Amino acid sequence: SLGIERISAIEFGVAGGNGLVALEDHARRVVTETGVEIEIYGFDTASGLPPPDDYRDLPYAYVQGSFAMDEEKLRNRLSSAKLIIGDVRDTVQHFGDTNPAPIGFISFDVDFYSSTIAALEVLDLPFELLLPRVFCYFDDVAADAAYCFNEFTGELLAIREFNEAHADRKLAKIAGLRHYFR
Q1: Could you tell me how far CA 133 lies from the centroid of its own chain?
Q2: Which site among 41, 44, 95, 143 is 20 to 30 Å from 85 CA-CA?
Q3: Cβ distance 101 to 39 under 8 Å?
Q4: Rounded to an integer, what distance in angstroms lies between the CA atom of residue 48 and that of residue 29?
Q5: Strand order in the sheet with 103-108
Q6: What phi and psi, each to the nearest 5 degrees, are found at residue 43?
Q7: What does the DSSP assignment read for 119-152?
Q8: What is the CA radius of gyration of the chain?
Q9: H, E, C per residue of 4-34
Q10: Are 119 and 86 a contacting pair, CB within 8 Å?
Q11: How many Cβ atoms are within 10 Å of 61's Cβ, its own excluded?
Q12: What are phi and psi of 41, to 5 degrees?
């Protein structure tokens, strides 16, 4: 309805690549149904989780090196997604320079508070590189009690700090979403 011919979908934290492959599959269906082309980008270190910065990264829940990528194997599974390998603190800084289509979806699965803060910088891009609403999925906001996710650590803290620091851009739950999708 906005007359946009192409959008970008991003996954921060690719690991083995199942999410990126699923994004490609969904993108093919969306293109067929709407005609809107989708550029897919996956950001990852390829070497697994870095060492945690401090308690906000939940060091009791995550092990350094976990979720390492077999880059060659993953590249052979992908048909269109572009892998951006490196520390998100560096790679996200230059993403806007690549002239991507406006961002319409982002999956955040970088586990750490510090990595989520860095990945959220993508939402600081100029408005023309973002759709009016960018749908975001955060993987690490709910789990069993062993993780103890809360508003003082991890992704929930990163979301709160993003909202506090931005007067004109906010992250919020979609009210009633669970009633429309299983």
Answers
A1: 15
A2: 143
A3: yes
A4: 30
A5: 82-85, 37-44, 6-12, 103-108, 130-138
A6: -105, 130
A7: HHGGGGS-GGGEEEEEEEEESSS---TTT---TT
A8: 16
A9: CCEEEEEEECCCCCHHHHHHHHHHHHHHHHH
A10: no
A11: 17
A12: -130, 135
Residue 143 neighbours by CB distance under 10 Å: 12
Q: How far is CA 46 from the centre of its chain?
A: 15
Separation between Cα atoms, residue 136 and residue 120, nearest integer Å: 10
Helix (H, G, I), strand (E, B) or coil at 114: helix
Two structure tokens written together for 41: 């980008």
For the record, the structure tokens of 88 come out as 């998100």
Residues in the chain: 182
Instruction: Return the structure tokens found at 149.
Output: 């996710």
* End-to-end Cα spacing for the chain: 25
The two structure tokens encoding residue 68: 């390492």
| Nearest-angstrom CA–CA distance, 175 and 180 | 10
- Closest Cα partner for 147 from 25, 16, 53, 59? 59
In this prediction, residue 182 carries a pLDDT of 59
Residue 79 — very low, low, confident or very high, per pLDDT cuts 50/70/90?
very high
